[in-house]
Amino acid sequence: MSAFDGKNFIGGEWRPAASGRTFEQRNPARLAEITGTFADSAQPDVDAAIAAAQAAFPAWRALSPLTRKAYLDKALRAMIARRDEIATAITRENGKVLREAKSEVDSAIKEMDYQIAEGVRLCGQTVPVEVGGTLAYSTREALGPVAIVTPWNFPFNVPCRKATPALMGGNTVVLKPASLTPRAGLIFTALLAESGLPPGVVNCVTGGGGSVGTALVGDPRIKAISFTGSTAVGKSIQLVAARHLTPTQLELGGKNPAIVLPDANLDLAVAEIIKGAFACSGQWCTSTSRVIVLEETAAELTERLVAAARALTLGDGAVESSGMGPVCGTKQKADILGYIAKGRAEGARLLLGGAALEDEGYDGGCFVAPTIFDRVTPDMLVAREEIFGPVLVIIAVRSFDEAVAVANGVAYGLSSSIFTNDLQRALTYMERAEVGLAHVNLMTALKEPQLAFGGVKESGAGLPEAGSSGIEFFTHHKVCYVKYR
Ligand code: NAP
């Protein structure tokens, strides 16, 4: 899988950026190791990719969904066969441990399988109407060339989650993967390319958000934008999209709480919170980043969380014994350390971690120790802003109502959990939680492909991904009235 070194995929060909410029990326576990050279693209490359997607659209749209399925099934079979090889590439450029990278590919496999099946049922409606002798029905129509802009934290699964329904819906795609992790997006593109997709149906352009990303989302030939990334960039895309009324699907940041009530099974709560907070080094949009606990349980829960987090073994994700890998890059590491410094300055008590690991074995990598703060109040920055790293804050409250108010009292609304065996409180929380995903006795990061995935408030806008709304976003409904008598 190296046809794409230094290249974009445009109109069915691997080709360098028009300028010939490239950029390098490095393994976050060992920054001295270059993981690849990628096309440093700009406006002319984006233009060419959109033109290719536009040219390919009429023929691709005209195919039956079953024919489109045949192409995507072939790519899916290749993905299954190459699962371990893809996971190794993800670990090398993203840093997550191999077990997590394999699980990312497994999720992509399940999501692709599900979205292919959704895509063969592009059902409209037939309903009786008042006008006599008239047949009324609706059909689901493709939109045109669509832009897919993706982040570095799930660099393989997010392109797959978005591109599959887009393609099954009859659209053509221009993908812009994150600059920190372009290889995973290129590998996904290569799987599609090798399935024999007609030229231009899928295109992938690497390069910076400020150059490739802005040129792509601002182009009027683009008929829908599916973006996953930070809230700040999502908002800027929404503004640009408004110029041409381009529909957007924005999957953004989170500040996800786990409420622990006194009757909770603490063994379960600790295991799920630790997984939710520190898997992928806390770099999931759905990571658990706030624990909200009633005062009477706070000391015991805190002690157990600290003990469990202390037991995590950090290391290169490619090494079997590593329980947690590095964070994805030097900027990410600096941002996380900046938040830790702010937490200390605000008066939160640092119980664990709080620093980068730089001694032997970790030198030259982006390792941040699992970090836990308690004595955190809801107004502190570390309790309100997305840190996107292995940092967990513990907030003690006096009542269930206060816990719910604190959980909802942030700008974000992506995911949340409550740990309790009290059915009334569990369901009351499900009713009141201002989020896209709510869990009882499960980690905040749990999701399945059959159901919608998206947030509310500053965590997302537009139709969510996955489930049946994944493909709904990429089609519009055309309503037809046919007078036959
Ligand atoms: P980001 O900085 O917003 O970047 C996301 C993507 O947008 C990258 O491909 C980036 O390109 C591109 N981009 C940057 N500026 C752009 C612009 N002005 N116009 C168009 N594209 C632009 O986010 P990130 O740091 O990669 O990812 C972390 C964030 O993603 C976190 O906030 C996390 O919560 C969120 N996330 C959300 C979900 C969800 O489903 N809700 C899932 C995963 C991640 P470059 O890489 O070249 O800068």
Which labels suit this protein?
seven-stranded mixed β-sheet; binds NADP nicotinamide-adenine-dinucleotide phosphate; six-stranded mixed β-sheet; 485 residues; single chain; alpha/beta
CA radius of gyration is 23 Å
Structural class: alpha/beta
Low-confidence stretches: none
Share of helical residues: 25-40%
List the ions, cofactors and other small molecules found in this model.
Answer: NADP nicotinamide-adenine-dinucleotide phosphate
What does this structure look like?
The chain is 39% helix and 21% strand. With 485 residues, the protein is an alpha/beta fold. The strands form six sheets. It has a seven-stranded mixed β-sheet with strand order 13-14-15-12-11-17-18, with helices on both faces. A hairpin with a 2-residue loop joins strand 3 (22-27) and strand 4 (30-39). Helix 1 (43-62) packs across helix 7 (209-217), helix 3 crosses helix 4 and helix 4 (98-119) runs parallel beside helix 5. NADP nicotinamide-adenine-dinucleotide phosphate (NAP) binds next to helix 7 and helix 8.
Summarize the structure.
The protein contains 15 helices and 21 strands.
Summarize the topology:
Blueprint lengths: L7 E3 L2 E3 L6 E6 L2 E10 L3 H20 L2 H17 L1 H12 L3 H22 L14 E9 L2 E5 L7 H12 L3 E5 L5 H13 L7 E3 L4 H9 L6 E5 L2 H12 L5 E4 L4 E5 L5 H13 L9 E7 H16 L19 H17 L2 E4 L18 E4 L6 H4 L6 E7 L2 H9 L3 E2 L1 E5 L3 H10 L4 E4 L15 E2 L2 E2 L7 H4 L2 E9 L2
Parallel strand pairs: 6-7, 6-9, 7-8, 9-10, 11-12, 11-17, 12-15, 14-15, 17-18
Antiparallel strand pairs: 1-2, 3-4, 5-21, 10-20, 13-14, 16-19
The structure holds NADP nicotinamide-adenine-dinucleotide phosphate.
